[in-house]
Amino acid sequence: MELLRFTDLTRAYGARTVFERTAGVVRDGDKIALVGPNGAGKSSLVRTLAAIDEPDGGTIARARETRLGYMAQDAPSDESITLHAALDAAFARVRAEEANVRDLEHQLTAASERGDHEAEATLLDRYGDAREAFDRHGGEGLEKQMRATIAAFDFDESDLDRPTSGFSGGQRTRAMLARVLLERPDWMILDEPTNHLDIETVRWLEDFIIADPRATLVVSHDRYFLERVATVVWDLSGGELVAYDVKQGKAYTDFLEQRTLRRDEQRRVYEVALAERAREQAVIDELKTHGSHNYSHVRSREKKMSKMPDAPPPDTDRASIGMTLVATRRATSGFALEVKGLTKAYSEPLFKNLTFDIKRGERVAIVGPNGAGKSTLLKILSGEIAADDGTIRFGPGLKTAYFAQDSADELPAGMRAVDAVLDAAKITEEEARGLLGRMRLGGDAADKPVEAFSGGERRRIMLARLMAQHADCLLLDEPTNDLDIPSREALESILAEYDGALLVVSHDRYLLKRLAETTLWIRDGLATPIQGGYDAFEAAALGHAATGKSPQPKPKPVAFIEAPIASPKDIQRRKRELEAAEKRVAEIDQKRGELTALFAAPDLYDDPVSVAKLRNKLAAIETAASEALHAWEAAMEAVETDDAVGVR
Q1: 3-class SS at 572?
Q2: DSSP state of 309
């Protein structure tokens, strides 16, 4: 059954056409994923299909007697509305149907009392239809439905009287989803339903959509979500909508493969058309060059060429982000970070006695339910806030950089984009403009105030700031928020090539699956390290859901070695060597910083010889820094061995 069909649909804002002459169909049971870059018009299309906006051209045919449930990308801004009132609004249609049923009951009673059997028969037919519709949409169990639904979405009954303005972003998203489901629609449109949801809730939503027989059209940048739920992918790009039938469970992978084949065929047809046009033009030029007197022949060929159809150029992905993240030092075998007994509480405990360590170059995903303390942990590690108890130790000379979840919103209003990058590190304006250019924000865009940019563009400014710092350890809190899929894929490639340590909090499971070597699962105040990448965490999480028990990290095999027991004199000597190595690393770091600062001198680049000498000095310092770091690691290993073996 076709629920909706649209033909030649066009939408424009002023002189800008968002999409033109697009066509598509929604059938019962379809799970449609609508994808495309930011600004392609995805939200405009779904708002038009949901009859919220009117199209500028084209037709939309909707099946009769079907009801659409629509969830907008942004929550309503009413500050005073309670959760109960927000959810009860879903029953407006059912309340009207109930009023109609009650009215018909009164009319039936009146007709029966006056003995009007003809009116009674007519009213009975109407009453049967009205009662069937009322019961189908929930009937008299509305409050029971509401309470069952809020339990499924992890709300307590006490939350019903709370204003939604006091909820977190994830809670507001769950409330909107609950309202849509309570409406009992015949099919649904969900615009970015996974925004602000933790991984466990997203997984629940995936399972719900897969099992639900209704058609669902979803706009999302969550590729893992799309991979699992979609049976059709609509790709909206450059004003054109292309539909791909895909296999649920590998939907996004199928879509990428089919789109590549389609673009390859487009490219082949385009190149053949160009070659044919060039060949025809060469013949005409040859005839003209040799003074052919057969003018009718020349004109005939020119006329033929003018009627040759223009092959559209093949679709291409927009230019990717051309940035590289470089650590101050290359990754070595030492530690980047050691955390022992970390504790933090607000009104209630977040976590207690967190203990873990991160090696240099290690990639760690931090996951857990919303409210578990993931972002708080990164803030503590970055020095933004203090822990209540515990110790944090970084490798000597290690430089960290922190990307906060809301950092893009904290850029000072009125500050130019180039100044925002200059504010992050000691670099020249030319270098800052170069970094922004590689983020596709070059030219005049670098001089625009930060508030003039979209959320995704401000995130790219923050990434340019991050790149300018050359940190050895990155602390990233939801780095893909507000980025469309092409930008997410570009960022993944950048982080995959980064050779420093990486701790990332993200709900983007595609990113975590590509990057994570270790997953730190924070739950119920505990931190459980899981080796083997994100897939190993998924398996452990599913096992936890089935048994209710948190996975225990597998004990590491211990190799028993007959090690000589060090004398107190040897231990003291090795500790002195460690202190000397730490001092040497710090001294070299200071010299490197001084040399790097010289590159910011505005007149330096007028003298190429001075630039070359300075670069040679910096290269020598980098070599010395690497050697000093290796010496420190060897000294640290010796001291740790002494501590493990003991003294006699």
Answers
A1: helix
A2: P
Q: 389: which 2 tokens?
A: 């108890």
Instruction: Answer whether 512's CB lies under 8 Å from 373's CB.
Output: no
Q: Judging by beta carbons within 10 Å of its beta carbon (0-12, 13-18, 19+), is residue 309 exposed, middle or buried? A: exposed
List C-alpha distances in Å: 248 to 254, 368, 459, 616.
Answer: 9, 26, 32, 56
C-alpha span between 635 and 637 (Å, rounded): 5
Query: How does DSSP classify residue 139?
Result: T
- pLDDT, one tens digit per residue, over 403-447 is 887 766 678 788 899 998 898 888 888 888 887 877 778 788 889
Label residue 557 by pLDDT band (50, 70, 90): very low
Task: Identify the helix (H) or strand (E) that includes residue 100.
Answer: helix 92-113
Is the CB of residue 431 less than 8 Å from the CB of residue 456?
no
CB 380 within 8 Å of CB 337: no
The continuous run of DSSP H or E covering 502 comes out as strand 501-505
pLDDT single digits (tens) 188-237? 999 988 887 888 888 888 988 999 899 999 999 899 999 999 999 999 98
Q: Are 280 and 322 in contact (CB under 8 A)?
A: no
The first and second tokens of residue 459, run together, are: 């995130």
User: 37 near 237, Cβ under 8 Å?
Assistant: yes
The structure tokens listed for 226 are 């799309």
pLDDT of residue 291: 60
Q: Are 34 and 42 in contact (CB under 8 A)?
A: yes
C-beta separation of 207 from 216 below 8 A: no
Mean pLDDT value across the chain: 81
- Nearest to 387, CA basis, from 400, 373, 368: 373
Is residue 71 helix, strand or coil? strand
Distance between CA atoms of residues 237 and 266, nearest Å: 15
Residue 235's nearest CA partner among 213, 262, 214 is 262
C-alpha to C-alpha distance for 422 and 49, rounded to whole angstroms: 45
Strands 473-477 and 526-531: unpaired
Q: Are 505 and 374 in contact (CB under 8 A)?
A: yes
- Residues 99 and 101: their CA atoms lie apart, in Å, by 5
What is the per-residue pLDDT for 647?
A: 39
Q: Cβ neighbours of residue 277 under 8 Å, at least 6 residues apart?
A: 305, 308
Give me the residue label for tokens 């007959």. 562
Is there a contact between 325 and 498 (Cβ–Cβ < 8 Å)?
A: yes
Quote the CA–CA distance of 353 and 343 in Å, as a whole number: 5
518-523 and 363-367 as β-strands: parallel, antiparallel, unpaired?
Answer: parallel
Asked whether 242 and 58 are in contact (CB, 8 A), the reply is no
Digit-coded pLDDT (tens) for 45-90: 999 999 999 999 999 999 988 889 999 876 555 667 888 888 888 7
Q: In a 3-state reduction of DSSP, which class is residue 325?
A: coil
Q: Nearest-CA neighbor of 206 among 547, 551, 542? A: 542
Measure CA of the first residue to CA of the last residue in the chain; give whole Å: 84
Q: Measured between alpha carbons, how far is residue 143 from residues 130, 131, 150, 163, 186 in Å?
A: 20, 18, 11, 19, 21
On whether the CB atoms of residues 120 and 108 are closer than 8 A, the answer is yes
pLDDT of residue 603: 59
Q: Residue 477: which of 404, 426, 386, 537 has the closest Cα?
A: 404
Strands across the sheet containing 2-13: 16-27, 2-13, 57-62
